[in-house]
Design brief:
single chain; about 160 residues; mainly beta; L,D-transpeptidase catalytic domain-like; 3-stranded antiparallel β-sheet
Length: about 160
């Protein structure tokens, strides 16, 4: 399945349409770390992470794993683990996946800059839960929880998200 994400803030898949929030830097072909842009392109859905203390495991054909309090994601281009999951505490710059704001209650890891990883080309590009007021992301795609769960229920390995 192809999931289409449009710069106007909509997502279309399998006859469904939903609203989404994108990066405050817009949508760009040439994604750079820290630019706030959502990368344009075609990216595989890698796996789903979720907060088991807040929600049940999402229904999906994708690999699913609960998030633990020590889960992080390295966003330091100078670090050997750039754009990879890390265990906290971690000495390099990183993002904490165990968040209190609910945004990462369900996170889908997108295959952006991961095969191979190129330092500085962007990290931690996820599909996750939109915040109140649909605030822009730092470069990810965010959807309402109900819409995200509906989408994930239709996904299987090999599905892609097309941003453009």
């Amino acid at each position: 399945m192809e999931i289409f994400v449009y710069a106007n803030g909509s997502v279309l898949w399998d006859g469904h349409r939903a609203r989404c929030a994108l990066g405050h830097g817009g949508v760009h072909q040439d994604k750079r770390e820290g630019d706030g842009a959502t990368p344009a392109g075609r990216f595989p859905l890698r796996r789903i992470l979720y907060r088991a203390d807040r929600i049940a495991a999402p229904d999906s054909g994708l690999p699913i794993r609960p998030i633990a309090p020590d889960d992080g994601w390295c966003d330091d281009p100078a670090d050997r683990n750039y754009n990879r999951p890390v265990n906290l505490p971690y000495p390099g710059r990183h993002e904490r996946l165990w968040r209190e704001d609910g945004l990462y209650d369900v996170v889908t890891v997108l295959g952006h800059n991961d095969d191979p990883v190129v330092p500085g080309r962007g990290s931690a590009i996820f599909l996750y839960v939109a915040g109140p007021g649909w605030q822009p992301t730092e470069g990810c795609v965010a959807m309402a929880l109900d819409d995200l769960l509906t989408l994930l229920a239709a996904t299987v390995p090999g599905d892609v998200i097309v941003v453009g």
